[in-house]
Fold this sequence. Notes:
Blueprint: H1 2-30, H2 35-67, H3 71-103, H4 130-150, H5 157-160, E1 162-168, H6 175-186, E2 195-199, E3 205-210, H7 219-233, H8 243-247, E4 255-262, H9 264-293, H10 296-320, H11 332-362, H12 368-378, H13 380-400, H14 406-441
Antiparallel strand pairs: 1-3, 1-4, 2-3
Helix pairs in contact: 1-2, 1-3, 1-11, 1-13, 2-3, 2-9, 2-11, 4-10, 6-7, 9-10, 9-11, 10-11, 10-14, 11-12, 11-14, 13-14
Amino acid sequence: LPGIAGIVLTMGMAVDANVIIYERVKEELRMGKTLSVSVAEGYKNAMSAIIDGNVTTLITGIVLFVFGTGPVQGFATTLIIGIITSLFTAILITRLIFVGMLSREKKITFSNRLTENFLAHTKFDFIGKRKITYIISGAFLLVTLVSLAVRGMNYGVDFSGGRAYVVRFDHNVTANEVRDALSTVFDGADANSSYEVKQFGPENQMRIVTQYKYDDAGDNVTAEIDKMLYEALAPLNNESLTEAEFVTTATNPVGIISSDKVGPSVAHDIKVNSVIAVLFSLLAIALYIIIRFKRWQWGVGSVISLALDALFTIGLFSLLHGILPFSLEVDQSFIAAILTIIGYSINDKVVIFDRIREYQTLYPKRNIRENINNAINSTLSRTINTSGTTLVVLLAIFLFGGEVIRGFVFALLFGVLISTYSTVFTATPIAYDLIRRDRKQA
């Protein structure tokens, strides 16, 4: 799943690269330039934003590959490969297609009557509304911190230690039926005999997580739990099964079809390494943006915004776990979702920062507030198009992708929304306030 998350982020960035190019071409066409000149200029003007956005995400991938473990490295590997290939296709392959079509005098359109001037002439004062959005972000942060303190997180086996089993029955069962059956063998059996039961895929399949003797790694404990599961759950099947048939994961269509065991020390190492990987990726992103955009304020604004994106997503999982009808478990897949959100979010921010830098060069006599507002307004169409296409894909996966990845995709859905919000209303305003304060002190 983390590897697939890397591919999802790659697809989102590949879409974004093409959207940036097409929006640039549309801008050139509005100026009255010919189609061939507009295509050439569109690719030329889009290049810096595409390169910067992909390089920041590539840095994230490299840092995660070096400092991450297991699934995090899987996410990083597919992300690195995906960025390189999507850069190649967006910059070279699509341009070759357009050049070929133009050479044959084919008609190419980048809009229709409805979309030709979509958000092309907006004049919204984003910077002027920053105090309101600061209050909104502060309220989100307060709710997140209170929820984490009061409700905590629903940690999976990856982060808490324990054993997880997927059990299949020969007919449909409910989680309550399975839970009641397990109570006969687990209740009072051990100080840490808590267990969770959730539907996992089809209605005849359940995922059971238990911390019964989770700090004892002996094979005898595994055999003991297998026997407990057999005694509790085998009677729920219509057909009778022997214990050997029930616990054999490789051949039987009914019974325990998979099992995972994570010791407490391994769970602790996974948690620590995941946090270190995320922190190092944030630091590397900040350094690149400071160097590339020649202002430390952009780096600080980005990191604060990215940290809030991740924190708000964590807070949502804390607030809603046990309320929604699907799992919001914090495990390595959730870490992959957080990393995907960070990668998507920084790409979004770099595109707007790049346009601000361009406007500062083109219009040096304008004040920075005007240039920032104009830059955000001029990239609104690209922001809506990229977020919209990504959300449509994620919504389809959320609705039809099955129970196994619903919590993961739910995190990505929220992450895309909060990333779009934070780019316009958090990262850029924070950088603006820091730049203005620095100038006053100078």
